[in-house]
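Our consortium's second objective concerns turning raw sequence data into structural hypotheses that experimental partners can test. To show how far this objective has progressed, the report includes one record in full. It was chosen at random from the queue rather than selected for favorable results. The single chain below, 239 residues long, was entered without modification.
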Amino acid sequence: MLELETDFNNLVFPNLDKKTMLKIVDKYKSTIPQSGVEKCEKNLDFLYNSLHYLVTAFKPGEVISFYLLLSYLRKKMADKSKLINEFPEFAAEFLKNLIAFSMYKEEIPPGMPEDRFNKYFQYKQQAKLMTSASSLKERFKILHDEYNRLHPIIIADPQRLHDAGQKRALFFRQKGLCRYCGKSMDFKKSSGHHIIAHSAGGKTADLEHSALLHKRCHAKLEKQIAKGLTPKLIAIKDL
């Protein structure tokens, strides 16, 4: 239900009560989207493998909240390779702060800023309404904000590759020349390059930070970047 019925773009979450669950069972009784099943399985595997012993101490509501956060990050983050280290670090920090005080005794733990205490206190209050859509939404927002505080979230551009129109604009701006080697290109064999890497939040529609290269030149450039080098592109004015 969480994987198939959540809309992160509009912050819409499903109720997890019995009535809603029965409706969802009826909705998907003929077929369950395989992509949703695969994403759910991968997210659960990631939770188990990354959190190890921490997950054994989770309450049911915490499993739900952390699952939603992980699903969001795996869908939206530009550089997902950092998750394997960042996510367990965040989980440990969040849970440490969460158990540092009792919601029945509003005393701010030593060293915890008041605004952060208020967030965690609100999280505990919302956790009592474990299955409601509004509770899921509020807890997700708190988890998201805390994760972003500790590990700034860079959202990936949904458009991964330059389309034909964008490539044409680059082609004519570069006078049909490759910005890697300076030689003429066959448009059909050209490749768009993100000067600000897509994994670092580079936008495909940002043509001021895009370049058109021969496919072979693009492959060479990416290999250099993978080795930690910073290859230089030819300036537009020098073409």
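The partners drew two points from this record. The mean pLDDT is 93. The chain has two domains: 2-150, 164-238. Both points have been shared with the crystallography group to help prioritize constructs.
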